[in-house]
Task: structure prediction
Amino acid sequence: MTAVAERTALEIGAPRKRKEDQRLITGRTRWTDNIQLPGMLHLAMVRSPFAHANVTAIDTEAAKQAEGVVAVITGADIAATQGACANAWPVTTDQKTPAHLPMVVDHVACTGEIVAAIVARTAALARDAAELVDVTYEELPAVLDAKEAVDDTVLAHPDLGTNTTAVWTLDSAGQGTGGHVDDAIAEARVDGIVIERDYRQQRLIPAFMEPRSTVVDPTGEQITIWSSTQVPHILRFLIAATTGIPESKVRVIAPDVGGGFGGKLQTTPEEFITLAAARQVRKPVKYTETRSESLVSAHHGRDQYQHLTLAATKDGTVTGLKVELIANLGAYVALVGGGVPVLGAWMFNSIYKFGSYRFTTRNVLTNTPWVDAYRGAGRPEATYAIERLMDELAVAVGVDPLAIREQNWITHEEFPFTTVAGMTYDSGNYEAATARAKEIFGYDALRVEQKRRRDDLDPVQLGIGISTFTEMCGLAPSRVLGSLNYGAGGWENAAIRMLPTGKVEVITGTSPHGQGHETAWSQIVADRLGIPFEDIEVLHGDTAVSSRGLDTYGSRSLVVGGEAVVRAADKVVEKAKVVAAHLLEASEADLEFVGGRFGVKGTDKGVGIAEIATAAFTSHNWPEGVEPSIDAEATYDPVNFSFPHGTHLCAMEVDTETGATTMRKYVCVDDIGQIINPLIVEGQVHGGLVQGIAQALWEEAVFDDNGTLVTGSFVDYTLPTSADTINYESEHTTSPSTTNTLGTKGVGEAGTIASTPAVVNAVVDAVRHLGINDIRMPLSPERVWRAIRDAGSAATGDTP
Amino acid sequence: MAKISVKVDGVTYSDDVEARMLLVHYLRESLGKVGTVVGCDTSNCGACTVHLDGRSVKSCNMLAVQADGHEVTTIEGLADGDTLHPVQQAFHDCHALQCGYCTPGMIMQATSFLKDNPTPTEHEVRVGMEGNLCRCTGYHNIVRAVLAAAGEGGGSQ
Ligand code: FES
Ligand code: FES
Result:
């Protein structure tokens, strides 16, 4: 027994190779598009080529006659039954929320909206017939840009009367967490430093690798829906809430899901329409989007204009920050679309302590595809702004950018610390992470090299970028969500089934799509119950199996869902202890639970928890009045967010003659609290970094003047490749979270949040001596080259 | 309809296929070889990569009829029974996959690449794998896995 105890004690923190891999590396996968059902039919969508139009007529005759066509569906046909794409987070009580029908009836508000659908015997025949649907559009003027939307000259939804859906403000003076920011700015204008900047968060496309797919089987007592989604539980609830189908008649399964990054945190028109089609034809129906459809119709991310005013004393101590955002929500207020910019409100102040703060976001509608969560959701935008500003402040004061950060950040003795935005950070150590990052990076040597290249007028200049970020993870305490008018809670659920053969099933309400929950949850339970890692099976993503859950997003799965697993496991132990005392004829007080075994202290008498599971099966020898089961379930509502942080350092080379940028080195030291599996953590960090670097250097969703997505395929929306990227040096410091048992903080979004400003700061640092203090993302060679050329003719910047 | 005869993962199939049917759809829909997946419609992503007569091809970029008389290996036919191919093993060991959607294509491309270049440098791996997109891993561990497989003789198999 000792051997088992020692081995299982090592699970948390061990670089376990993933349980998930075996199937995935041999092609034994269960993607939604793999599903074939008897009599299954296929769906193809007819999408609007116009950004803004009235639909005046739809002629479906030719399509109906086409080979293999079973049904042609228009919005008018299913208007009453199709349900609706809901907005779960009206950020203000007077938010203007346009109705979002899955299939439009007469008004198209963005390119790619679905106006009709074909059900046919094969996907190819459905697509052929879709070409034959003749839709008459009356084109309307379209508003595409968020700034242009503000004055309401052109309305995205004429019936709403305005493009502004909500204006949301957080003011430290109003809520009592700080002073008046306008006072701080006025004071700094007289006797200090004011940095005023406009930054653009370009629109991005999440571009998960598995295109979305939905299969609906309406033939059983329960309608079964397989979907490539991050949120099977939310989907089930919203189908019931908006179609009137009783929730108990709907089962949603998220089988293998090929990435999401927030992009599959949505209840989509395609899901609702596939459901409506299957109910109409009373046969299983499958819809799988093409990549080109996906890029235009799955929700986009970011797209903000940021106007920022930072006030500081002459020596660089920040005294206030004013943030004025215009956020482009696209054509509809998506599931949490209005809330994404709001989430940034608590993060613009980041790791810094200062006296006053005001954040305002104006959320506007435009005739572009809807915008919602994309990895980081609101927090990357905030981090970008403050980390860029800190560099500008350092320049204005004339000190090293790390020094200016150190001067302003919360020191490790000051935790727990309540910020000017009103969040209480429980733990952290910015000094430790920064010191370690500097060391690995070789910060001082690179600064020397930078100076040498400047002095030598080297055409290839070197820049160093810093990002000392924090984020709020573990969404979220339900009462906080309630106070923000969010339509759901933030708890998570887990259940543990102790099988009679000693094996264990762990049921989680989180819904992984690449994060490795099966492995990590097994490690947690192995330690908690003393059951071998291999004997544990993690089940998820099926509402018939995990009846309660709020799914996976916002770096919440481990911090909230993992804690629920811990609590369920602890309940199992509690229940088993009563039985152990009975079986061992000992008092509970004399028992200790070590390595999966209840032992009577001071003796060698004991019984294993797996044996108790077997005893529950027969129940022949069981304590009086105790239910014959040691299974348990727990629902956990977090008491606070968690606040991972880290220091990222990036070295970029910039060819000042061509504008080409090359990443030379990237080092990150993240503090994500207790690590369950370092292998999985590294993977999350690497993937996150590249998505953030891609925002800095490569990616942008571009529309032409008519609102057509120019970057509508992988030819034009250029994801980074292996040849574009480098190896990353990633390490950790650890200050455990104090608000959950495991001390975890979450890591899913860290890399993405931190890396964008690190890269841009590095490029700007490389060319700042030429008179450049900003370049718009993505920093294509052309933009860098133009910035250098323009700086040559007119010096800019705040540098004295 | 055209008649084709193709050997896939060691089994010969004779089928009538529509002339316009892509090889990837033939594999997935006619043969149930759903381990091979589709990630794009412009031949950019490499998710559909298989071997045709031992060399990697993007199976979305080829018609099924073009495979007539040829031999196709998919991710499902790469392992030797229960023994993983060294590249598969390396992907597992190096945590070179997260969601796993790109993984079949990545592994098929890597095996083909290593056949041509059994002892690549990191740079050569990065260039050799450029046609396969991954949104999850940031490529760091994929590159590591391909180099590890090369060390294990992944290229010679
Ligand atoms: S499916 Fe993308 S290259 Fe074949
Ligand atoms: S592992 Fe998800 S796309 Fe590569």
